[in-house]
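S.,

Sequence below, as promised.
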Amino acid sequence: MQNKQCRSRWFGITTCGILCTIAMIVAGSIFESHAARQPRSQRDTEDAQAEYAAKRLLKTGQDLLLANETERGVEVLKKVIDQFPESDVRFEAYLALGKHLIDINKQQQAIGYLNYLRELEDAAEPPAGETLNILLEGLFLTGKAYFQMRQYSSAFPVLRKITNTYPNTVWANEAYYVIGKSHFAQENWNMAIEALSKVGTYIDPDSPTTEYVEAGRRFYVKIADGDLPVRYRLNEKIFVDLSTRNGDEVRIEVIPMAGDSDVFIGSVPTAIGKPIKSDRILQVVGGDEIHTKYVDDNTLSGDKTVNRSSTVKIVSTATLGFTRGDMESRAEGAYIGQPVFVVLRDIDLDSSDAAETTTVRIICRYKAAEEEGARSGETFDLASFLRDSSTEDDFQIRDEITIVLNEHKLAPSALETEMGEQETEVAAVPDDGTVRTGIFAGRVEIVPISDDRPVSKNDDVISATVGDEIVVTYIDELHIDGEAPREVSSVIMVLSEIESTPRATQYIVSDPIIRSKKNLVEGEAYLELGRIFKSMGLRQGAAEKCDEGLALVESIIRSGNAVPRASREEAFRLKWELEIVKDDFTAAINTCRLFNRLYPHSPIVDQALLGIANAKAEGEKYDEAIGIYKQILALPHSQAKPQAQYMVAEAMEKIVAQRGSRYHGFNKDAAIAQYKLVAERYPDSEYAGPSLGKLVDYYIESRDYSRADDLLHQVFTDHPDALFLDSMLLKWVLVAYRMQDYPKALEKCNQLMYDYPTSDFAEKAKQILPRIQQKVK
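The prediction came back faster than expected:
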């Protein structure tokens, strides 16, 4: 029997923070030949030790990034990849590096790391659990990075892979959101509406978290019933009744979901507070429940007016942070002699109309002196690391206290948005003394350390000095992921004492690491200026700007180990891009070759090879370019293969156009065969759609309209977001007309004018529409 179930679920885009203890971890290698001679039990033990070491090293890198020690954090995460190439922990390192690079607006580098997560799809068993979550988050971040770079044609295939292959996941909702924003940015209004209307409508029915809804967020109801489309076409309104254990009631209307006629959705905002009748807002409190009821008028068994119901529990995912004295603005630092303010939001604690209290732990910690080898990044033996890891601790606690937070009548603020809250509703605060906000606030004084007074952990103040970290922690017992306790924390740095003493300052950068960062920023600026000058035809000005940029990045390359490897790799990338803008292709090729020799395992090695091949193609040396593209295709784990395969076909086309239809085996058919390989081998890549478009053009030129029609159907099925679909629709009109399928030609012509009203191809469709209409008559 068909299961007609009324399910309800809140959806919101969140970011997950990671809290761990910072420790400088280094690891060595276990030689495979040595392991082969050991007993199986001993090998298993060492494998487990290596896995443990990899996880510790990963945690260290993540903690360093959280502590804003980004250079060291990136280096440590790269150690995970280099020293544990067979461990699954490396995928978490790829994901962490991708997240970090997106945060600092280095999307292209982030994509290079995130693409390595595709290996999870090639495993013997389908990804599941945490492995699947890592894969999906990696795919989503890849699409998001392309969106941020406005490379929408690259974003669509990645995001559609999530929505098509893993629809009932939270990542499908997020993917639809970015797909909708991408279409909106391109002014494809109908496609944007269709994608955005699906946000929040997909859930995993087997997930235990479907029984929870976040307090204060919009509440969604989704109904699947085959009878609903008929009732809707008869102008009958479909309602769902919602009620809370707290006594509030709301009736909402559900409407068809775009693209799925059997599914109807509706929503209502929720707010924190006492029931207010007829306000169209569902008031909830901590520990509340929402009951959903829908009357099924007709079932498969013939029963009438069957009540379908569902119940979800109100929970609150706690957020915690330091604020300024207004209890709203986020505090960027703590100052000795001044108080710090703490704000906690957890609706679960709001159990009555009176103001509740709760406690949080606050510590002051400082970093212990590090061994010189650890700071320099020296690699130690794994066995030594495992032996010493139990006593390793980079942080020492200087002082700690527990403070009481009182529930306040505070409205939601910018702080809550920064801490992860979005569109949270809070009801109007009544004048009867009721406090139902779930927002708790408190303060603690920061006092300086005194040489003649030991630090006391029994007072009500925090003793600290400049450079210390103040950390507040709270255990969230109930949240959107269930009842498993999670630790929520926030960290703030002790910056200084507030003083107004004049100081002498100089702006000479002597530290090589800081100087390298400065030069990279300026080098990137000169690269953009060079591109702008070149686009305006001012080649001399472009060359001058590129020379200034080259002087900066070459100084980083010459610095050697004085600067982190990541900075040197970035300097190499800027160097060959500056040389390409300067039209110095020989220098660009030599730079790429040197980079490949120095960093053969770098994730941007593919980009280096592409840089060489593209430089050859720019110089119209297509034969040499094809040879280098084929080197990329021969690499075992290259993520640039789709582009390389497409560029091979494109170079072959240019050879045919330049040197004639027959030149050493390069002809039109050979180029088309290469385009076909792109579509067959890399169907999820951004180059699959354009390759299919080339094939369509080829079949139309060959008057093979039947194959062109089949291929056009495949294009619109597999690539619904491609940028060239308006031109493909016009071609489909032509193909259908030549096949004398006039109704289909009319359908595609109308679709072109409706979906792409501002397209130039839509104007052409208007001109040929009367001719098609005459044939239909």
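Residues 1-37, 370-392, 412-429 have pLDDT under 50 and may be disordered.

Coffee later?
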